Amino acid sequence: MLKQYETIIINSPLITDNQLKDSIRKYRDFLTKNGAEIIYEEDWGLRKFAYPVKKKASGYYHLFEYKCEPELIKKVETEFNRDEKILRYLSVLLDKYALVYNEKRKLSGKKTMENTEEPKNLLND
User: Fold this and answer.
1) CA distances in angstroms from 36 to 20, 42, 64, 122, listed in the order given
2) All domains in the chain, ordered by first residue
3) Residue 106: CB partners within 8 Å, gap ≥ 6?
4) Which tens digits make up the pLDDT trace of 21-46?
5) From the centroid of its chain, how far is CA 7?
6) pLDDT level of residue 114 (50, 70, 90 thresholds)
7) Cα 64–chain centre separation
8) Dihedral sign of CA atoms 78, 84, 86, 88 in order
């Protein structure tokens, strides 16, 4: 039975833009070739860490949300461990509450992108 997961990977800040795009494409292709259905992707860009990770102060974050068989998680995490460009990763099984939250987050993101006019102050109207 397919379950829905969310994986965040953090790439090294020392890689070029092309290497970053190749890394993301590599894992997207790996997931789809192994039967995963990618539902959503989001690039969070370069962010600073709260503490050093492998002697780095920042990293490139990327989020994948997908449906797959549970066995695929072990395979993709093995690939992450083999890749020296990946500093950290976290895969999470999404429960029904997380699915609802993700849908609301995606919709609010679309609304803010579509809404280009100045927000109204409802308290002073």
Assistant:
1) 21, 17, 11, 44
2) 3-101 (3.30.70.60)
3) 40
4) 999 999 999 999 999 999 999 999 99
5) 6
6) low
7) 4
8) positive
Q: What is the pLDDT of residue 58?
A: 96
pLDDT at residue 115 greater than cutoff 50: no
Instruction: Scan for tokens 């995963």, then name that residue.
Output: 36
Q: Which two tokens stand for residue 78?
A: 């093995």
Cβ-based burial of 67 (10 A; exposed 0-12, middle 13-18, buried ≥19): middle
CA–CA separation, 25 and 101 (whole Å):
26
Contact between 49 and 58 under an 8 Å Cβ cutoff? The reply is: yes
Whole-model pTM?
0.81
Nearest to 80 by CA among 64, 93, 94: 64
Query: Which whole-number Å values give the CA distances from 74 to 17, 34, 78, 84, 111, in the listed order?
Result: 28, 12, 6, 17, 36
**Edge-to-edge strands of the sheet including 3-11?**
37-53, 56-68, 3-11, 86-93
